[in-house]
Amino acid sequence: MAEYASSGPLQPGDRAPNVVLDAITQEGKIALDDFRGRKPVLVGLFRGLQCPFCRRQIATMAQLKAALSEKGVETLTVVNTPIERARLYFRYHPLPNLLAAADPERISHRAFGLPNLEFTEDEDDWPRKLGMQTVMSMRLDMPGVLPEPMDPVAASDYLQKADGYEMTDDDRRMEAVAMAQLVGEFLLDRDGVVRWSFTEASPDGRNMFRSPSPDEVMSAASQVVH
């Protein structure tokens, strides 16, 4: 497969490259070129399914599927989880009408310019490196999900236990090489041009472990189809 790379997250006006991936929720391959000339598509690029924050973001994206379809916008969820592991997960945790693809090598993440953040002891060089001291000073406030604001490590541990998620060898392999792969959502018009995006790689890092609100996504979708 051809390798793509971008110097930073794709911005509105940039043309998205064609990426071809193994489909999870159907047979065969999925390519971004499948949508070109047909419909706009919201592409969600996430970490592996071992990430409890990403599992919730994927579920939120799936919940918007019907409303986006009404506006003529398709959705594609991409996870850096090996195909068989991903298929097994969605078999037992089905999300109706979810179109998903596996990208264990993170080809799509690099193509869209999402950095694989390195955790360091104390060096901050956003969005390439982040010191654990900085990470542990963060507080994630997720009302109704977390009992109180927590640092990302404690929040992840809490959510894994709450979900009863059991890590597999595949999960551990993905986590070892891309624990802090930054994620994002990109809305492409029918010509494959980025019209809106929301990424963790925002200049000040304010979007770490966050996802766009449904209203924000739907507002962007309304603009791209006109």
UniProtKB/TrEMBL annotation:
Segments forming domain Thioredoxin: 10-226
Per the UniProt record, the source organism is Sinorhizobium fredii (strain NBRC 101917 / NGR234)
Please give the InterPro entries that the UniProt record associates with this protein: AhpC/TSA, Thioredoxin-like_sf, Thioredoxin_domain
Task: For the region Disordered, give the residue spans.
Answer: 204-226
Q: What name has this protein been given in UniProt?
A: Thioredoxin domain-containing protein
Molecular-function GO terms, alphabetical: antioxidant activity; oxidoreductase activity
